[in-house]
Amino acid sequence: MLRVEANRRDFLRWLATAGAGLAAAGVAPAVFAQEAAAAGTGVVVVTGATLIDGTDGPSRPDSAVVLVGDRIAWVGPAADVPSCGSARVIDGRGRYLVPGLWDMHAHGIDYEDLWPPLFLANGVTGIREMQGYDENRVTRDKIARGELLGPRVVLASAILDGPVSLLGPPVTKVADAAQARAAVRTAVAQRSDFVKVYFYLPEDAFAAIADECRRHGLPFAGHWPYRLRVLDAAKAGQRSFEHLFGLPIATSSRRDEFLARLDATPFDPKAPRDFFNLARELDRQAAQAYDPAAAAQHFAGLNAYGSRLSPTFTVNRVISRPADAYAHDPRLKYVSQDIRDLWADRLPLFTPVTATQAAQQEAYFEAQLRLVGEAHRAGVGILGGTDCQNPYVFPGFSLHDELGWLVEAGLSPRRALQSVTRDAAAFLGRAHTAGTIAPGKDADLVLLDADPLADIGAVRRVDTVVTAGRVLGRAALDRLLADAEAAASRPVTAANARSVRLPVHGCC
Ligand SMILES: [Zn+2]
Ligand SMILES: [Zn+2]
User: Fold this and answer.
1) Average pLDDT over residues 257-276
2) Any idea what DSSP says for residue 261?
3) H-helix or E-strand spanning residue 68
4) What's the 434 CA to ligand 1 centre distance in angstroms?
5) What is the pLDDT of residue 42?
6) Domain 5-99+439-488 in CATH: superfamily?
7) May I ask the CATH class of domain 101-427?
8) pLDDT higher at 506 or 21
9) What's the gap in Å between 310 CA and the centre of ligand 1?
C-alpha cells in the first residue's frame, strides 16, 4: 500500500477534489474543505476496517472513512487516503464499521446521568423517544446544542389518548375532534417530531388527529387505536404500529369474531385495564389461529399504506415471563433504586403467575416471532426498537437483544441491522443525513470487533463509537458506563429524586 505523507493543506485539497460523493450528497467539496479548515483538529480518518455501510451492497474490506467535524466527508479504499499528520487516525484493521444504531422505541432520555451514556456506550447514536413531556424536551434541546453528550432524539408529542386511559399525567386525553386538533397544534408548538396515538382514542378524535397532522406535515404513529381497524388507521396515515398489538387478531381466522367482541365492549372508566387485558388475551388466542389468507391481506394493506411494524420484542419478552425472571440481570447496576423499585412494582401487572399462564405466554412470544417473520417475508417494513425504561429493558444494551430477536424471527443479520440504521432513517425522513455511511451524512458510526453480518451478536462488541463526529474510544465508553453505574448507585433522597415516569401504560 502506498502511503503518501501529506501536509494538512495537501490533505484538505485531496479531500476537496476526491470528494465527488459530496457533490452527489448536495455538498460542495470546497465548502467541505472550508469546514475542514475551520474544524481545526476535527478531521478523523477511520482506516482499515471492513465497511458495512448500511446499504444492500457488499462489505468492503480495508476501507477508510474521513470525517470532517460532524459529517462524513469521504468513503473509499484505505489505500487511496493520503496520511496526514494532523488528522486523527483510528485503526480499524480487523474491525467492522457500521452506521450508528437507532433505538426506534425508547423512553426516558431525561434521565440524563443514566440513559444517554448507556445508549452511546452501546452504539446507539439516535433514538425515537415515544412520549414527549417537559423534561425530555429540555434534554432533547441540550443534546442538540451540544451541552449534553447523548444520542440524537426524535421526540414524540405527548401521548394522545381518549378520555378513558390506562395512563396518568402527562398523557393528553382528547374526547372529540376539537380537542384532538388542539392537541396536535400543541405538539407542533412544542416542536414534536411526530404525534403519538394511543389505544383508547375515539374514532372521531383519531380522524381529526390524522387530518390535523396532514395539515401540519407532521407524521403520527403509535399503538393500535382499538376503535379502528388497523388497516383503517394505516390508511389514515398511521406510520407505525407498536408492540404487535392487533397483529395476531388481524392475521387470524378468528379476526371477525374477536373484533366484533371488542367493538361491543366499552372502555370502563372505573376499570380501564379491563379492555386492554381483554384485547391482549384475544391477541394471544388469535395467534393460535393464524390464517395465511387473512395475513396476506393484512400485510398487503400495511405495504400499500407504507406503515411499519415496531415489534419491541425485548419488552414483549420481559412480560411473557414470570415477574422474577429478570431480578438478577447484571445490567441492573446501571439502574437507580427508585427505578428498580418501580420496575419490581409494575411488572407483575403483566406477567404470568401460574405454570399454565407461563406456558401460554411462552407460546405466545414464539408466535410473535413467527408473525414478524411472516410479515417481513411479505415485505412489511420492520423497525427495531426496545421500549427501554419499561421493566428490565435497558437503554442501549437491549437494542442488541432486540437485534437478536429480529434475527430469531427470520430477518437476516443485514436486514436486522438495517431495521435500526438505513430503514430507521428512511422511516424518520432522515435518509439524506443518517442510516448509511456515505459522504455528506452525519458522522454517527460504530466500530465493532466482529462481523455483525456473520453473527448479529457482534453488535455487543463495541470498540469505538462516533457520535456527531465525536470519537469515543473503548476507554471513553468504559468511563461512560462507570459514570452511569456510579450515578445509579447514589442513594435516592427527596432532594435528588427524579420524576420516575414509566411509560406507564404499564407496558410500553
Ligand atoms: Zn407503547
Ligand atoms: Zn413505549
Assistant:
1) 97
2) H
3) strand 60-68
4) 24
5) 78
6) Urease, subunit C, domain 1 (2.30.40.10)
7) alpha beta
8) 21
9) 10
